[in-house]
From TrEMBL:
Organism: Horornis vulcanius
A Pfam entry, by short name: adh_short
Protein family per UniProt: Belongs to the short-chain dehydrogenases/reductases (SDR) family.
Gene3D superfamilies membership: NAD(P)-binding Rossmann-like Domain
Keyword tags: Oxidoreductase
Gene Ontology molecular-function annotations: oxidoreductase activity
The protein, known as: RDH11 dehydrogenase
Residues in coiled coil: none
Length: 112
């Protein structure tokens, strides 16, 4: 939704292979179908990613590096606000993990 969906739509309009990295399979797949319909680009795909989970970030990065021939652009757009204080299963504060640590780790893992 929001800025991320707009950026993905613009990239798809430019005929880019576009990967939407989403926490929710249902919302993500709905966005994929909407972007494909709006742009005519069938190369829009969904991969599940929760940036609040470093294990999820590692699995996502590993799959992208293994399955994609190249990566030209990374848009880190995930973020949360206003959540009650919570600790992840990895012992990290949820908002900090989701907004900072996850995207930082993802970027560094994808740099190769």
């Amino acid at each position: 939704a929001g800025i991320g969906k707009c950026v993905a739509t613009d990239l798809a309009r430019r005929n880019a292979r576009t990967i939407l990295a989403c926490r929710s399979r249902e919302r993500g797949q709905a966005a994929v179908e909407e972007i494909r319909a709006a742009t005519g680009n069938p190369a829009v795909t969904l991969r599940l990613l929760d940036t609040g989970s470093l294990a999820s970030v590692r699995a996502f990065a590993s799959a992208v590096l293994r399955e994609e021939p190249r990566l030209d652009v990374l848009v880190n757009n995930a973020g949360v606000t206003g959540l009650p204080f919570a600790i992840t299963s990895e012992g990290l504060e949820q908002t900090f993990a989701t907004n900072y640590l996850g995207p930082f780790l993802l970027t560094n893992l994808l740099l190769g």
